[in-house]
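Now for a chain:

_____
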Amino acid sequence: MTRIAVLGAGKIGEALLAGLLAAGRSVDDLTFTERHPERAADLTSRLGVAAADVTTAAAKAEAVVVAVKPQDIAPVLAELKSAIRPGTLVVSLCAGLPTALFEGGLPEGTPVVRVMPNTPMLVGEAMSAISAGTHATDEHLATVEEMLGAVGRVVRVPESQQDAVTALSGSGPAYFFYLVEAMIDAGILLGLPRAVAADLIVQSAFGAARMLRESADHPVILREAVTSPAGTTIAAIRELERHGVRAALIDAIEAARDRSVELGRAAESR
């Protein structure tokens, strides 16, 4: 594959472009669209990648990555339908939108791969889940895996699981940021300067994440290793359980899944 067009140069679109360049892609192999001229000029200045309109970008691409907001998909599909070449791979990074929506709005036989990435793509540590549409083959999935491997890790899932993925890892970084925010506030309450509390918690989160990735132990085992009898940690865990934090997290993720389903249905009804 030699030519990729990224439609929508928001944070995720920019992160993908930057990751592809860092992985060795030539600026001549990439293009992007951006409806705000100032933003487009800034990206071209910083990354060296040329901007184009949807029709021009799609007509020259072998893979088109759609990274627009779900509510903006209708006009993009309308432009793509007349511009895309037969056999061009379409990769959707749009939360909640099923491959059937793209297949119905694009020429018959267009291969579509649905992706749910997350914002750690900005630092090359994304978790992306990919699913094949009706006309996408293993070769198409491998192409997308290679593309997204430049900005993190990739897993294949059935499309029926994508709404759950959206709720768990797509929105997941926000849950961690929320918890870190609360823990920093707790440190301030206990008398620590904000900068010290933030440094303590961020490094603790980084270290804990590395332990989770590199250890073969279940999270319960890792937690128990910190939890001494009658110690400080078990006192904290008791309060978390008393306030229903575990149940609240499960309910929150379920609500995110339901919202992802709603977004897909709303887009299909337009």
